[in-house]
Design a protein that fits this description.
binds FE2/S2 (inorganic) cluster; alpha/beta; globular; Ubiquitin-like (UB roll); 38 strands; 29% helix; 6-stranded mixed barrel; Rossmann fold; 29 helices; Alpha-Beta Plaits; 8-stranded mixed sheet; binds iron/sulfur cluster
């Protein structure tokens, strides 16, 4: 296997439908209008030397290496900046051009350290390649004059080095940061000979606005910007295309390897979700796979107070199976259950739910999507007929208006955020609905037209007020609604939203947002052209999460914004495979493909394939499992890749539930917080160590490919298979592709999916079946999946979680770019350089009222519990609102959150907790107790 070489066409593809025919080096070529000569030449195999051009960036024309001759035209224009015209006759290789190019290269090389043999980029350097391409043999100018050869290196970033002595000032890095990433962190400082790349006004990358996305490193044609790992261990030898295991954007990467060592992850240009871009997590934060705290041997213990004892895989599996059998014999079939992971592959998730339904013989299976996007499933299924987003990510390029609600894409979905920002810089309008001033509201070259900074917990009131304006001001797309939607439901809904009680003026007291601003935003959404809604957990994690999703769907249907590129309703999924986990039947009431367990026909299909009788009653959800455990009826839980003690609400209740069980099995990479209560620990494998698929937020199924052997010995699917076999329900798969074949046989929306098809197409968006063999980028084009779109009345019901004299502030939570969820992976990488601890954002007024200064320890208390963290004073949050992240276990932000939840799905109300903040003295008693308990739970006895 060798490195995958991606063709660089030099300039971006033209989207024009008109075409132009010209002649290049005697060959006729037809290309889209607007194509550069350089790209047209490359398409017929003619490589024109270049340095400042690369096809991920707009042409710049600074290096003058790509000169060509054009018949009938004087001079030698740059082929990267010159568009083709009909009938043009171009010569790319002449003696005159060769002389000019050699001259240019001589100038570059005269100010370049000639240390190729010891340079980290040796063999992967465009400057070296170009010297060869132009036939450079010597440099007439010598290296005696002024030069930059002694310029200092900037090693402040843990992942890459900036070696200014090697910079050719081609600006590719500056342009990558602007055009691809949209951060504008870099600039060319100085003039003429003194010009140098600078990270803004800061002397170092770490001190600058840089978010470490790696785009500049990727774009740099020399060794100036180089990954630290490449400097440390050398150039990679082979690459394998795989998918990032962090967020729901689903970026495709080339994992570049040296033997079994991962050297770097390089974003793959053909990845349809990321189009060659990346963020700091997928690009750099994969070191956790080799972290010393990773557990590599199975472990068991009789009691959670005992130290762990390492055992063989056979012993661990046999022990687990016998414990589950014992519990079921003693307490009944329903006393055990399983939790699937949104971090694992589709195939692994499918196997866990199959194990629960077929081997345990009940439907007690749930997934962490319960605590994030279960309302999306419910809301979109009810209104449109499918539990998923409607578009592909490319669609944003066609949007005229973008409405972002309860999502913070630049931190949580950074690569998609960069694509969105590109569209916004090109002129799309922006509405942000969020209690906090997220970066998108105002960042480099972007300013939201409207920021509706509503009070946490008032989403439904806000959306109904927007709908009120659309209906009462005659902005409904009546033809669309008449043709596509259930008219009775629409009429009832229109009558409901038109009531005075739902007007922006009436709702102003509830949401805190001026009515005039709401009216303007509604008009913009309804009349601004193709309008798309993107939303996140700020929508779903509420007591009215499902209602909010349906209110969003109502708005989109009323304005005809469903069923074509540029529009749609798009949940930004948190975890890499949360869509897949839901698709695969992880919920207690649904088989794969969202078919209810009470549906006899669907059940029959699985019964005959699996040779068992399935329970027709839905099983227990996670919170119900914990309640049942506290009540003494639920005793055994198999948890794959999930840390419910840290990620689920009301930590104390979760601890009580887990503590009441007799066999808790945790399958994970590290001894996570939940493992404090575990009796069996089964070491999991990383995404680098197994084959499978993930499904991203746009329903895109992508391959995960094994690049190294599992350090723990088994891939996660093999562990579930072994457990099932030990329980007496045989599973005989030899490769995950066989599991996918079974999924395809049993799941209509996956009917056309196979590893062969994924390999051939790169990826595919479900539904993929006979009607759509290459998948479905945009859904509901001619009709809704459920037939007619269904409007739902969305009455605003205030949450029971109310502020009062004891708890006068509202806490809302979110993520930060460098950390990921409970931080199990990212905290074990250099990413902690950016976010060492969770902090509490508090408005200056609220801080002053409490005598709190920036950096002070504060106690954050709710009726559920309290925790201590440091205060950060900022006006990003409104008065009365405080905000924190939940990436660090010692903060345990979920000690504070309550167990109120969405009425339809039990999704916890993380985004609204009434709290008080007071000056504190650092971590409290329980945090110390907890740290001690956690430490004790990590004791491991030496293997026998
Ligand atoms: S790493 Fe990304 S954000 Fe940082 S300077 Fe490079 S392109 Fe800009
Ligand atoms: S750092 Fe690299 S990409 Fe940036 S100007 Fe220098 S050589 Fe070009
Ligand atoms: S945006 Fe998400 S999928 Fe892409 S590299 Fe970052 S974490 Fe990975
Ligand atoms: S590649 Fe065209 S001017 Fe540099």
């Amino acid at each position: 296997m060798s490195l995958i070489d991606e063709i660089d066409f030099g300039t971006p593809e033209s989207r024009s439908e008109a075409s132009v025919t010209l002649t290049i080096d005697g060959r006729k070529v037809t290309v889209p209008q607007g194509t550069s000569i350089m790209r047209a030449a490359k398409s017929v195999g003619a490589s024109i030397p270049k340095l400042c051009a690369t096809d991920s960036l707009n042409a710049f024309g600074s290096c003058r290496l790509c000169l060509v001759e054009i018949e009938g035209r004087a001079g030698t224009p740059a082929s990267c900046t010159t568009p083709v015209t009909d009938g043009m006759v171009v010569a790319t290789q002449t003696q005159r051009l060769a002389k000019l190019r050699k001259g240019v290269m001589e100038l570059y090389i005269s100010d370049h350290p000639l240390d190729c043999l010891t340079c980290a980029a040796n063999g992967d350097c465009e400057l070296q390649d170009m010297a060869g391409a132009v036939g450079l043999r010597d440099v007439r100018y010598g290296q005696d004059g002024a030069s930059h050869l002694t310029a200092e290196k900037d090693t402040s970033n843990p992942y890459f080095t900036y070696d200014a002595s090697k910079c050719i000032v081609c600006s590719r890095c500056v342009r990558a940061c602007e055009e691809q990433q949209g951060t504008f962190a870099l600039t060319i400082a100085g003039r003429g000979f003194g010009s140098r790349v600078a990270p803004g006004p800061s002397p170092t990358f770490m001190g600058s606005e840089c978010v470490s996305c790696g785009a500049c490193v990727q774009a740099c044609p020399t060794a100036t910007l180089t990954e630290t790992k490449v400097i440390e261990i050398g150039q990679p030898e082979r690459s394998v295309v795989t998918t990032c295991a962090y967020c729901g954007v689903g970026c495709a990467f080339k994992a570049e390897m040296r033997g079994e060592e991962l050297v770097r992850m390089v974003p793959w240009k053909d990845g349809k979700a990321n189009r060659g871009h990346s963020c700091v997590k997928g690009r750099f934060a994969w070191g956790y796979a080799q972290h010393k705290e990773r557990i590599l041997s199975p472990m068991i213990r009789a009691s959670i107070n005992d130290p762990w004892k390492e055992v063989s895989w056979d012993a661990a599996i046999a022990h687990t199976a016998s414990e589950f059998k014992r519990i079921q014999a003693k307490y009944g079939r329903d006393a055990v259950g399983g939790i699937t992971s949104s971090r694992c592959t589709n195939e692994e998730t499918y196997l866990v739910q199959k194990l629960v339904r077929a081997a345990f013989g009940n439907n007690n299976v749930d997934t962490c999507a319960r605590v994030c996007h279960s309302p999306t499933g419910y809301g979109l299924k009810t209104t449109f007929g499918t539990s998923a987003g409607t578009q592909d990510f490319d669609s944003v390029e066609d949007s005229d208006v973008i409405l972002v609600m309860g999502a913070n894409p630049t931190d949580a979905h950074p690569v998609f955020a960069s694509r969105m920002k590109k569209r916004l810089r090109a002129g799309a309008r922006l509405i942000v609905i969020d209690p906090r001033r997220i970066d998108l509201v105002r960042s480099a070259h972007i300013k939201a037209d409207h920021h509706l900074a509503l009070r946490p917990g008032t989403n439904v009131a806000m959306l109904t007020a927007l709908a009120h304006v659309i209906v009462t001001e005659g902005l409904v797309d009546e033809a669309y609604v008449r043709e596509r939607c259930d008219m009775d439901a629409f009429t009832h809904w229109a009558e409901f939203v038109a009531r005075d009680a739902n007007s922006p003026e009436a709702m102003e007291a509830v949401t805190g947002v001026p009515a005039s601003e709401v009216r303007q935003a509604a008009r913009l959404y309804a009349t601004g052209g193709r309008a798309a809604i993107y939303y996140g957990l700020g929508v779903t994690e509420h007591s009215q999460g499902s209602t909010t999703v349906m209110a969003i769907a109502n708005l989109a249907m009323a304005t005809g914004n469903i069923g074509r590129p540029g529009v749609g309703v798009n949940p930004l999924r948190g975890q890499n495979n949360v869509q897949g986990a839901c698709d695969m039947g992880s919920f207690p009431h649904e088989l794969s493909g969202y078919r209810h367990v009470s549906d006899a026909a669907a059940r029959g299909l699985f019964e005959s394939a699996w040779g068992v009788t399935l329970d027709e009653e839905p099983g227990l959800r996670i919170p119900n499992m914990l309640d049942a455990a506290v009540a003494g009826a639920f005793k055994g839980l198999y948890i794959q890749g999930e840390d419910i003690l840290q990620s689920d609400p009301n930590t104390r209740h979760v601890a009580a539930g887990l503590g009441a069980m007799e066999c808790v099995v945790v399958q994970d990479l590290f001894l996570n917080e939940t493992a404090t209560f575990a009796h069996v620990f089964l070491p999991g494998s990383t995404f680098l160590e197994k084959d499978g698929t993930f499904t991203n937020a746009e329903r895109r199924i992508q391959r995960v490919r094994k690049v190294m052997r599992p350090r723990n010995g088994l891939a996660d699917w093999e562990i579930t298979k072994a457990l099932s076999n030990a329980l007496g329900f045989p599973m005989a798969y030899d490769h995950p592709s066989e599991i996918m074949d079974e999924i395809a046989r049993l799941t209509p929306s996956f009917a056309g999916v196979s590893y062969d098809r994924l390999d051939a197409l790169g990826s595919v968006q479900w539904p993929c079946n006979e009607a759509a063999p290459e998948g479905t980028p945009v859904m509901h084009i001619e009709r809704f999946v459920r037939g007619e779109g269904r409007f739902i009345i969305t009455e605003y019901v205030p949450t029971d979680e109310k502020v009062g004299p004891r708890f006068p502030l509202l806490l809302t939570t979110g993520r930060i770019l460098s950390q990921y969820n409970v931080g199990a992976q990212t905290r074990r990488t250099e990413n902690s350089a950016w976010h060492e601890e969770d902090v509490l954002e508090i408005h200056p007024q609220d801080a002053e009222d409490r005598g709190v200064r920036d950096g002070d320890w504060v106690t954050l208390a709710s009726r559920s519990g309290d925790t201590a963290l440091r205060a950060r004073i900022t006006d990003r949050v409104a008065p009365g609102v405080v905000y924190t992240t939940f990436h660090h276990p010692d903060t345990q932000a979920n000690v504070v959150t309550t167990d109120y939840s969405d009425w339809a799905t039990n999704c916890p109300e993380y985004k609204v907790t009434a709290v008080q903040v007071s000056k504190g003295n650092g971590p409290g008693d329980w945090q110390a107790r907890y740290a001690d308990q956690s430490r004790r739970a990590r004791r491991i006895e030496a293997a026998e």
